[in-house]
Specification:
Layout (H helix, E strand, L loop, with lengths): L16 E12 L2 H9 L7 H14 L1 H4 L8 E10 L3 E12 L4 H23 L10 E12 L2
Helix pairs in contact: 2-4
Length: about 150
């Protein structure tokens, strides 16, 4: 395998195999935001449905966002959310038949899902001065990566 200085990694000689990656993350929100999401009462509509769609869109465009990622075919995506007392967790699973892994795609999907949640409830999250003192995205990570399933 040859590494291009300052560029993409040459994956020409690698075999096309099934690949899977799972990423997760969390957004901390006020209890009022969690209630609005759970009850479907936000001004912008279905928060989790929109965040799921945003994640899929981001996954498919990862190579356009992250400069040295290869463009790869995505064969399956699963996006799951868990609502807690003051948080939303997301888990994103991505599969591909490719020469390179899908961990960047799963991370991108999770990050964009969380950003979408923030965008859709930010009017609830703002304090009197327009800031977000308790809103926080955290724990973005690759949970699992598998090659040659």
């Amino acid at each position: 395998m040859t590494i291009n200085k300052g560029g993409m990694i040459d994956i020409t000689e690698k075999k096309v195999v099934e690949r899977r990656a799972v990423a997760s993350g969390r957004i901390i929100l006020r209890k009022e935001s969690i209630s609005a999401i759970a009850e479907g009462k936000t001004k912008k509509g279905d928060v989790l449905g929109t965040a799921r769609t945003a994640a899929v869109m981001a996954i498919k465009r990862t190579s356009e966002i992250v400069p040295f990622c290869h463009q790869i075919p995505i064969t399956d995506v699963k996006v799951d959310f868990t609502l807690g007392r003051n948080y939303v967790d997301v888990k994103v699973e991505v599969k591909s038949l490719a020469r390179t892994g899908v961990e960047m795609e799963s991370l991108t999907g999770a990050a964009v899902a969380l950003l979408t949640v923030w965008d859709m409830v930010k009017y609830i999250e703002k304090n009197a001065s327009g800031n977000y003192p308790s809103t926080k995205i955290s724990d973005l990570r690759v949970v699992k990566k598998e090659v040659g399933l």
